[in-house]
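agent> Task received from the user: take the single chain below, predict its 3D structure, and emit structure tokens. No templates, no multimer pairing.
agent> Plan: (1) validate residues, (2) run structure prediction, (3) serialize to tokens, (4) report one or two observations.
agent> Step 1 OK, no nonstandard residues flagged.
tool_call: predict_structure(input=
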Amino acid sequence: MSLDAVPAPARDTAPAKVEFRGVHLRYFGEKGETHALSNMNFRVEPGEFVSIVGQSGCGKSTLLSLLAGLIPPTEGEVLIDGVPVRGADGKVGFMLQQDSLFEWRNILDNVMHGPEIMGADKAAARRRAERLLTNYGLGNFMHHKPGELSGGMRQRVALARTMCMQPELLLLDEPFSALDFQTRLSISDEIGAIIREERKTAILVTHDIPEAISMADRVIVLSARPGRIKAIHPISFSSAGGQRPGVLDAREAPEFAGYFHQVWEELEVHV
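)
tool_result: status=success, residues=271
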């Protein structure tokens, strides 16, 4: 669905988990004003997984920073559950490109770090952290240091640390980009399945078109800076019999190539 000029979406009776209403972002530097985002209007419904793709510098990660309350928009509103974002919110969990684990703390203590600094009940946080690590296949590594784990295992720890905060919305800023190709496929499949099983709302920013298509319910394509919504693609795979396939199965689906070529052309990365 091409969106040359994106109107503000019609209001539903129930608030979206995420909504951008006419959002613009400008910032000033030594070279003057930079218009980073222009007229961003879109919704993400509860439990939906949305991927955002676009060229470098188009404002993909900036959208996540707006949602996390790290920066305010110049114009428009960013809302979570119908409430304007005014700063950091415990509903939001953020996974970054690097796992940023504390090398001097063991895995269990790393996962418990967020609840600790929030002053949460320590015993309850420990039980939650142990359950998450066990569920993510890391039960035997709780007392290991991060340096003893593979890259994929470290990313599962990073997810457990994020989930231990019990967020309702997950923001994923290229969390698999530091992994080798085979590990990236495997861990994105695992983490995608975990997010769906736990019915979290998720927004993934990525440069990787196959990753965006295989993980998401919808893919949003941004233009070059200033970032505008160029297209939105609902993703479905008939071969899955109405069920969402895993990342690896999605890449083998007959519809996959069509989605890939559509997004590739819209990104104009070949120009």
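agent> Step 4: summary for the user.
The beta strands are 18-29, 32-44, 49-53, 75-80, 83-84, 92-95, 169-173, 201-205, 218-222, 229-234.
agent> Done.
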